[in-house]
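Good day; I would like, with your permission, to put a structural problem before you. What I wish to show you is a protein chain and, alongside it, a tokenised description of its three-dimensional fold. Please examine both parts with care and let me know of anything in them that strikes you as inconsistent. Thank you for your consideration; the sequence and its tokens are set out here:

***
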Amino acid sequence: MVEENLPSAKGLSPWSGGPPGRPQPLKDISGSGEIRYRIGIEELDRVLGGGIVPGSAVLIGGDPGIGKSTLILQVLDRLSRKGHPVLYVSGEESPQQIKMRGERLNAHESNVWVVSETCLEEIHKILHDFKPLFLAVDSIQTVYTGELGSAPGSVSQVRETAGRLMVWCKKTGTSLFLVGHVTKEGTLAGPRVLEHMVDTVLYFEGERGHAFRILRAVKNRFGSTNEIGVFEMKDSGLEEVKDPSLLFLSERPVHVAGSVVVPSMEGSRPILVELQALVSPTNFGVPRRTAMGVDPNRVSLLVAVLEKKAGLNLLNQDIFINVAGGIRLDEPAVDLGIAAALAGSFLDRPIPAQTVLFGEVGLTGEIRAVSQSLVRLKEARKLGFTRCLLPKNNLERLTKLEDMELTGVSTLGDALKVLF
């Protein structure tokens, strides 16, 4: 239970930006088509759906130190170089600290305006005088309003401050970037309603031991929620990865049991990633089932299918699944790759290095067709793979590809016979 002091509304709030709007017929609303501001960072522009929509609010979340503030400063630097007025409101760092980061990112010569302020009323005065086209607040948990007696970061403060900033930005056409902290469970701290208020929610994903960062859209009113952006963290900041498939496979071991390459779709982009499986006899009464980068429940399902339909005795085996590079795979098209990696590790037989495979596995052991098979195959052929195992129904709808051998399978047993 949280006690909230409701502010007394007298007259017109300064955050309303003007008188209330009047209803009008949809046919009488004038519009000149969709307008977007391109940032110049292709990975981010694609995740946003082609650029920033004027008056939109973008919430960026991620673990501490993952690169949220670095990305915001690079974005504002690109926009300021195009002549747009931008303002960076920091509640966690001083202007001198931001200057030091700007020098490291080679953004210290840009026309990014910086202010260190946490009081919402003072921020409103600055916005009224400066009138930026792009506004970044880092982070929303540090901003507070004096009209509420609760501490900064509380549920009421986060909801009220974010709501007032969004109202002002919608009225003035200013694009808003909000940086949000995350909890230990990986969700955004504060009220869940914050994600419903904004137009776009982006999550920064990545392991601390890896240099790769995945920017994933979990909500986007102006674009697809399936797109991802791939970045690499370097001393000079976040650098775009133009060909993530080549990067994820750069350290792939060859002729090793339990390793397989699967073409996965992330929105409109095909990415080839390496799946690794390790199956070894357990020394305890209950075998371990550990999955990194894929759904553990899906792995348990595939283990049961391998036992029942393929005759592999995995009941007393410890099973470990990992997606190399720290990326997360959510689509069922990687089922066949997971099953093949598990079988290869259990039988200690490597899968040919130039082979990729994809397909959804059903509970009866059938291999179901998946979408965008031609795009997956072209990406695999571009990287030098010469053979692919795919669902038989997909193969019947495809034309032959040069320099690539296609093998259609209808059951999991057929796939294991072809591979081993």
